[in-house]
Amino acid sequence: MEFEPVIGLEVHVQLNTQSKLFCSCPTNFGAVPNTHVCPVCLGHPGVLPVLNKQAMENAIKCGLALNCSISLFSKFDRKNYFYPDLPKGYQVSQFDKPLCHKGHVTIVDTGVEKIIGVTRVHLEEDAGKLVHAAHGADSGVDFNRGGIPLLEIVSEPDIRTPDEAYLYLTALKAIVEYLGISDCNMEEGSLRCDANVSIRPKGQKQFGTKTEIKNMNSFRGVQKAISYEIERQKDVILSGEKIVQETRLWNDDKGSTFSMRSKEDAHDYRYFPEPDLVPMVVEQKYIDTLRENLPELPFPRMHRFIEQYGLPEYDADILTGDKAFADYYEQCASVCSEYKMISNWMLSDLIREAGARKISFADAPVTPKMLAEMISLISNGTISGKIAKIVFIEMFDSGKTPSKIIEEKGLVQISNPEELQKVISNVVAQHPAVVAEFKAGKEKSIGFLVGQIMKETKGKANPQLVNTLLREALG
Ligand code: ADP
Ligand code: ZN
Ligand code: MG
Known about the structure:
The protein is α+β, with helices and mostly antiparallel strands.
């Protein structure tokens, strides 16, 4: 029996506003526990929350970037539950009237574009955090995170493979980063993802029973957890049993999911409208202004890269997947028109060398201007592609400009025929046997001779010219 997975993702993005959603406490990460708190975010009696306008604006921007309809009227609701990190006994969230709904994200899976629906985007406040002591059984509560604005982005069950889930998250993260509304750091918890997974026999319309997987701390973790869960569900069904609707926890070390709670003890949140906050009413004009001021987003930018620079979709997709990376590319392209070469160097050498030094490409000593200069030196024949590899590493290590490195190391390509002819005559004279082989029709032998000439010139000989001159000499 063949099965088809059905996946929907719930993503929480912490907004990087200066202050919390309903009070003026600061939001920066890593502060001493319980120093970013006040009576409002601790839920003391008698306090009144006030909405942070910037948080609402960022939520609307995100909704627009995800092609959502923005509600002119929406409201906050209380989601009631008990947990030690939730002093009020409820989380202020949005239930039946979310700020944004019915949007979509386009992903590119090995060259094929696919649209993933976004059900809703709503604003809510974060909870505090339990801190478990390294030794002993004690736990503390840190309320610094309590009340920080979160966006919950819920996808339609349109995702069909773990790879698509990974691509959806990457696309979403890129959009949010382009908007500059969150740090999207999964390790610091500013982006969190729960995955809903079910399977159904291929061809069946109706969805199967889903499980919800939590506790992944990277996009690769989400991908692996979904893969594991699909296989687990197949085993359960093929052994004649039924899937239980439940929440499962991913254990990254063990590479498997474990049941946390089943539907029987599922929460009943008793949502009701938040009486301390007025509804959010926004004007269409305000939304239009925000839409007009959105930055160029990753997907349109990818298409522009294909059009404007003649790049393959593969290159354009990777380059525009990260705003700073795309900006780097465009800074190079504004001064050097070898568009494909710039992409090649960025996608291979720049990523590789930065990775080897465990730094971000943005911190690399090679600036866009330096890379562009180096590529121009290749294309005007000053250096060969091979020498450029040396120059590139040297730029990375010393931060010197390519022309400086070439000058200091004497790396200029030898394109002077007379100079090359001397080396060629020497090599030809030194290897009569190989020359004879070539003349007898063994075409490959010329490669050896070219190699010798390159060696003699320390890689500086212009390879095309060597080839032409050598053939003439052997003529
Ligand atoms: P719940 O009521 O359990 O919160 P929702 O209908 O709100 O469920 O959906 C939560 C998430 O689960 C959404 O991302 C949705 O796309 C996804 N989802 C819903 N049904 C299924 C299913 N049968 N299989 C996989 N994912 C699903
Ligand atoms: Zn506060
Ligand atoms: Mg739900």
